[in-house]
Amino acid sequence: AVLAPCNGELTVTATSGATPITVTFQDGFTGTLPVTRTGLCPGDYLYYATDNLGCQSDVSTISISCNQQTTNYEIREHLNNCTQVSSTILVADVDQSVGTNPQIGDTVSITTSTLCYVVTGTTQNNASYFIDNIYADCQSCTATVPDSYLLESCDTQGSFQYADRNVVLTPNQVVELVGQPGCWIVRGDN
Do the beta carbons of residue 77 and residue 90 sit within 8 Å? Predict the structure, then answer.
């Protein structure tokens, strides 16, 4: 399982009390109000405040939750004969990014900073492309059993290449792996 991303944020301010006012969190973090914390994982954050005269507030809780949206990926594969263009289409439902200039044998990842899943494909020397369909369920992510999608190389040497491309996908954006005689090219529309 892949854990939810730690990209939460909270801010604590004071409405009264003798300044400066110090806030202390259960996890040991302390600061002078106003305090903003970033990079927080989903969960409960308990804190109390102490003013300059030593007056202390009750313990308060701020809860940070994961984005409840579930994102699914679809792989559609179209293989024609080698005189025509063949393509595999990956459909992403939310913002994604594709690594730059992957080589044969490298891992190709599509990730997000707002939800907790990773889709990974690996190219092989025999021009195969494997991809895991992974989805978010808020608190953690579960990987389904990997499926394999074969992209056939059309020339006698079995060459395989990716174009140097950096793509940021928006909702319902499409990334295509397009095959032409002699090579395969990763292409993204943005």
Answer: no
One-letter amino acid at 175 equals V
Summarised one tens digit per residue, pLDDT across range 76-107 is: 333 332 333 333 333 332 333 333 333 333 33
- CA 80, distance to chain mean position in Å, is 32
Nearest alpha-carbon partner for 98 in 150, 175, 151: 175
Mark which of 39, 64, 89 sits at the end of a domain.
64
Tell me how far apart the 2 most distant CA atoms of the chain are, in Å. Answer: 82
Residues 60 and 78 in one domain: no
User: Residues 48, 133: one domain?
Assistant: no
Which of 12, 46, 64 represents a domain boundary (last residue)?
A: 64
Token pair recorded at residue 184: 């395969």
Coarse DSSP helix, strand, coil percentages of the chain, rounded to the nearest 5 percent: 0, 50, 50
Which residues fall within 8 angstroms of residue 19, CB to CB, at 6 or more apart? 33, 51, 52
pLDDT in tens, 28-65: 999 999 999 988 877 889 999 999 999 999 999 998 87
Q: Give the tokens for residue 59.
A: 């313990």
Q: How far apart are CA 189 and CA 35, in angstroms?
A: 41
